[in-house]
Amino acid sequence: MPKSNDADKGAQTRTISVQGIKDLVERTFLAGMGAAALTKDRIQELVEELVDRGQINADEGRAVMERLVARSREEARAALKKADGSLHTAYRELGLGSQRDLDEIALRLQQLEHRVKLLEAQSDEQGQATP
Questions:
Q1: How far apart are CA 81 and CA 75, in angstroms?
Q2: What is the pLDDT of residues 76-109, one digit of tens each?
Q3: How far is Cα 22 from Cα 98, in angstroms, rounded to an integer?
Q4: Is the Cβ–Cβ distance between 87 and 21 less than 8 Å?
Q5: What phi and psi values does residue 62 have, to the nearest 5 degrees?
Q6: Other Cβ atoms within 10 Å of 69 Cβ, number
Q7: Whole-prediction pTM value?
Q8: Cβ atoms of 31 and 76 closer than 8 Å
Q9: What is the CA radius of gyration of the chain?
Q10: What Å distances lie between residue 27 and 9, 77, 80, 119, 121, CA to CA?
């Protein structure tokens, strides 16, 4: 009976861990998106302020804003890529398979089912051939 409780605790821990990871990834993604939006708004405000002061002209302001927004997007993509890598590592550590793993297993299962059908058909033919 103690083994059953240990198994239940293990299943609960795994469920909690997976949910915790999902929550962490979601919070990281939303924070990144919020930071990117905030950054764009803040960049625009700063550029408009520089244009209003006459420190740069409107064309220079647009060019600066485009460069900074592009850089911000690149950094957000890099952060998401890093988070994705961390998520895949966590899945592996928890013993969870990737979609590719599942697709490979499904293909192998289909191949085995096909082989069984061929063997069954061959067995039926041999059974009918014997009087």
A1: 10
A2: 788 778 878 887 788 778 888 778 888 999 999 9
A3: 15
A4: yes
A5: -65, -45
A6: 15
A7: 0.42
A8: no
A9: 29
A10: 26, 15, 11, 52, 55
Q: At 118, list the tokens.
A: 């061929």
- CA-nearest of 16, 10, 57, 65 to 39 is 65
Q: How far apart are the first and last CA of the chain?
A: 56
What burial letters (b/e) apply to 33-56, b meaning 16+ CB within 10 Å? eeebeebeeebeeebeeebeeeee
| 8 Å CB contact between 69 and 43 | yes
Residue 52 one-letter amino acid = D
Question: What pLDDT digit, counting tens, does each position of 18-28 carry?
Answer: 566 666 666 66
96 exposure class (CB count in 10 Å sphere: 0-12, 13-18, 19+): middle
Q: What is the 3-state secondary structure (H, E, C) of the chain?
A: CHHHHHHHHHHHHHHHHHHHHHHHHHHHHHHHHHHHHHHHHHHHHHHHHHHHHCCCCHHHHHHHHHHHHHHHHHHHHHHHHHHHHHHHHHHHHCCCCCHHHHHHHHHHHHHHHHHHHHHHHHHHHHHHHCC
